[in-house]
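Hi all, posting the design record for the shared folder.

TITLE: backbone redesign
STEP: 1 of 1
STRUCTURE INPUT:
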């Protein structure tokens, strides 16, 4: 679909990859961009770059009433970008606190699911449009240092495949984005080379424009994907050396 003239809604737009996606949408001529965040105060500087087109909206994706309210307000959306995410740096076994596992699943999986359920009818009414789910290369192999996060992103990938099939008839493109390490707050504790958020944003919107369903937007992601296809067990074992501290 064309980015120019589209009406987009981006979750987690106040920083990191979400903010970069809003900036690229703005620069590529989106007609309106709903920049959403849990705290709209954090959107002020971004909105000030183009107050005519960037509309701030309060939205916690785990709050189902807030998700429904956003869908009631942003009725003109043609491109939904599910970017909001959390990452607990923890293994499965170095805690028995169930909250750690629930936290990432609540935002990354259930939050994305709520958004899609709320906005799919809007996209249909507006001609089909597109949904982007920002998942992770951890969707395809478990990183023990980010154990429950990896599980939540595997769930996000499965959700992406399922809704792609269910929304095909209404003409909605569903894009999954699977980055490696990106230079944002989330990856601050990760000792690995990282790419700028703008690179992920550009690759994501290129994919929407060309109708590409699966996006491996950086070298680390593309290499890991290639490894998983050519020798999945060796790649699992290599990633499995990244144990929680
Ligand atoms: N950074 C990486 O290396 C990397 C790699 C692969 C995939 N990703 C994925 O990329 C996406 C963006 O991550 P990032 O790197 O930009 O991280 P980030 O800088 O930590 O930003 C995360 C964003 O998600 C928002 N968020 C968290 N919980 C939310 C909720 N319940 N409702 C609404 N918004 C919520 C945060 O809002 P607050 O400011 O209110 O907390 C923030 O805007 C995530 O889905 C992440 O899993 C990141």
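Okay, here is what came back for every position:
SEQUENCE:
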């Amino acid at each position: 679909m064309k980015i120019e003239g589209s009406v987009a809604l981006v979750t987690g737009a106040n920083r990191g990859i979400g903010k970069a996606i809003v900036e690229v949408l703005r620069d590529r001529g989106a007609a309106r961009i709903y920049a959403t965040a849990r705290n709209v105060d954090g959107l002020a500087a971004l909105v000030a770059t183009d107050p005519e087109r960037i509309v701030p909206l309060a939205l916690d994706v785990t709050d189902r009433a807030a998700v429904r309210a956003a869908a009631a307000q942003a009725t003109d959306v043609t491109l939904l970008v599910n970017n909001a995410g959390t990452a607990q740096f923890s293994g499965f076994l170095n805690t028995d606190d169930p909250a750690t596992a629930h936290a990432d699943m609540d935002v990354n999986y259930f939050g994305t699911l709520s958004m899609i359920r709320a906005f799919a009818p809007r996209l249909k009414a507006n001609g089909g449009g597109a949904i982007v789910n920002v998942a992770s290369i951890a969707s395809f192999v478990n990183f023990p240092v980010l154990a429950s996060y990896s599980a939540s992103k595997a769930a996000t990938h499965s959700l992406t495949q399922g809704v792609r099939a269910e929304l095909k008839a209404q003409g909605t493109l569903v894009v999954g984005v699977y980055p490696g390490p990106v230079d944002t707050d989330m990856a601050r504790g990760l000792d690995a080379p990282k790419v700028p958020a703008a690179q992920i944003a550009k690759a994501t919107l290129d994919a929407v424009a060309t109708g590409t369903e699966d996006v491996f937007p950086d070298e680390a992601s593309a290499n890991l994907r290639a490894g998983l296809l050519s020798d999945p067990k060796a790649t699992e074992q290599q990633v499995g050396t990244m144990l929680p501290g």
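COMMENT: The pocket of NAP is lined by residues 11-12, 14-18, 37-39, 59-62, 83-87, 107, 111, 134, 136, 179, 181-182, 184-187 (CB under 6 Å).
Let me know if anyone wants the other runs.
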